[in-house]
Design goal:
heterodimer; A: alpha/beta; Rossmann fold; 6-stranded mixed sheet; 3-stranded antiparallel sheet; 6 helices; B: mainly alpha; ABC transporter involved in vitamin B12 uptake, BtuC; about 80% helix; about 0% strand
Chain lengths: ~250, ~260
């Protein structure tokens, strides 16, 4: 499978402080990647490098030529003096009305088309941002903490929608989350970040995990899956790598 | 008298028409202080223009554009927060301008630059003003959707492929152009008021970005008419009177804003 974006030993400094250290990874067409890590791990910085919003201090970011990226930012802080309807917000991309309607339907927000952007709830804003990301006809969908500000059922619904969209559109998906133990069940690979890549793996299979069943009950298709970290190092208070056995999960 | 008032009226309208949409964009991007800094630096441009014995508008434009382009790199290199940097730049350039103007031989009417002199507008000024006004409006119409997109979410606009850095430079140049011509009308100290106040007034009453821009033009026009009328009837200074009317309109319409801050 071809890689849409490849990072080769990417390091990023912000005013003398090292934010990311020698990150190498690749995002493959059609695959779902979950990027997890604690707050301050550099997740958003890494996303900005992948999107091309920032340039690495050293190392290389290679993007496939003409790659179409749909980006759903973490939050939207609209100025109170900027009145926008949902439809006008989507029209900022230059998309036609038919395309706007279609992507709103795909994001499950068709009823919001004439609402003001200022009156939306957290979950509704999320769906409108998803609709805007879909307008790019993305080969890669980048979602920065999409589950932030929505409750657990909202999170499940969102993840179910994203995996459905992946199947429908065949796009690759990069999902960022600060939840260290539960990731989207359909995730093909998990990257755990704490300024460097701590571990890299696959989520556990759900069928035999009693913890999931007690938490969410039996569902036909599970949306979340637990992720077991396999670290071969430890972190000091400052996040530096300390040699020694794995102490945390 | 009618001639003077008519010229002043046309000059005022030619200024507030591009100021409406540009002020709206500046307000949405929370860059009100940016406009203030550029306006303050205009006095340095005035001093330079007098020194070189050339068109003051040209040197003001040059100084404003230069400052606008320098602020970005200065922000990155110095590590100071942008608002402290803007404060430093605004008052340093204002003070430098005042010192430089005072060193000119011959008397210079500082008040005309600080607070404008709309009643002294000549036919030749109107030609320049018309040109700048049409140019600014044309550029904003051409890239309006993109400018609103950047004001809404800069990163998102960039990922979607808009040339954000270039459009931000365009915006700076537009602001510098308006400062250069607006200086003569309301002065360097009040020009940013004409950008901000009408847009803030319209923003509370509108449902689309275009309504804000058009509403800001409308509020600006009312302020120009009111200010000039008061200057004519009560002999108040015209430039400040226009700003007072703009502010009065803002407070008058305050109870009618539908939306609460979210």
């Amino acid at each position: 499978m071809s890689a849409l974006v490849t990072l080769d030993k990417v390091t990023f400094h912000a005013s003398e402080r090292q934010i990311l250290d020698e990150i190498s990874l690749s995002l493959k067409a059609g695959e779902i990647t979950s990027l997890i890590g604690p707050n301050g791990a550099g997740k958003t910085t890494l996303v900005n490098l992948i999107l091309g919003l920032n340039q690495p201090t050293s190392g290389k970011v290679k993007r496939q030529r003409g790659l179409r990226i749909g980006y759903m930012p973490q939050k939207l802080t609209l100025n109170a003096g900027l009145p926008l309807s949902v439809d006008r917000f989507l029209a900022l991309t230059g998309a036609h009305r038919q395309a706007r309607k279609q992507s709103l339907t795909m994001a499950g927000a068709s009823q919001l088309i004439n609402h003001s952007m200022h009156g939306l709830s957290g979950g509704e804003t999320q769906r409108v941002l998803l609709a805007r990301a879909l307008l790019a006809k993305p080969q890669l969908l980048v979602l920065d903490e999409p589950a932030q500000g929505v409750d657990i059922s909202g999170e499940e619904e969102l993840y179910a929608r994203i995996s459905e969209l992946r199947n429908q559109l065949g796009c690759a998906v990069l999902v960022v989350s600060h939840d260290l133990h539960w990731v989207m069940a359909q995730t093909d690979s998990v990257i755990c970040l704490n300024r460097h890549i701590c571990c890299h793996g696959h989520p556990q299979s759900i069928s035999n995990d009693p913890g999931y069943l007690t938490l969410f009950g039996e569902q036909k298709t599970p949306v979340l899956a637990p992720y077991v970290h396999e670290h071969d190092h430890d972190h000091s208070m400052h996040g530096d790598v300390v040699e020694g056995g794995c102490q945390h999960d | 008298m009618i001639d003077i008032l008519l010229y002043a009226f046309i000059a005022g309208l030619l200024l507030v028409i591009p100021a409406g949409p540009l002020g709206s964009i500046i307000l949405w991007q929370r860059m009100a202080y940016y406009g203030d800094t550029l306006a303050h630096s205009a006095l340095l441009g005035v001093a330079l223009g007098l020194l070189l014995d050339t068109h003051v508008e040209l040197t003001v434009l040059g100084v404003c554009v230069l400052l606008a382009l320098l602020l970005g790199p200065l922000h990155r290199i110095s590590g100071n927060s942008l608002d402290s940097l803007l404060g430093i730049a605004a008052h340093t350039s204002l003070a430098l301008g005042l010192v430089a103007v005072s060193m000119q031989s011959g008397a210079v009417d500082l008040n005309a630059y600080l607070f404008g002199d709309i009643l002294a507008v000549q036919r030749s000024d109107l030609i320049l003003l018309t040109g700048i006004s049409v140019l600014c409006c044309g550029l904003m119409l051409w890239r309006w959707n993109a400018l609103v997109a950047i004001a809404t979410h800069r990163d998102l606009a960039q990922v979607e492929g808009l040339p954000v850095a270039r459009l931000e430079i365009l915006q700076m140049v537009l602001m510098a152009l308006l400062v250069a011509v607006g200086m003569k009308i309301v002065g360097v100290l009040l020009i940013s008021a004409l950008l901000i106040i009408p847009a803030a007034t319209a923003g509370r009453l509108s449902r689309t970005p275009e309504q804000v821009a058009l509403g800001a033009i409308g509020c600006g026009c009312i302020a120009v008419v009111g200010g000039l009328f008061s200057a004519w009837q009560l002999d108040t200074p015209a430039g400040p009177s226009i700003v007072v009317f703009a502010a009065a309109l803002f407070f008058l319409l305050l109870p009618f804003g539908k939306r609460t801050k979210t």
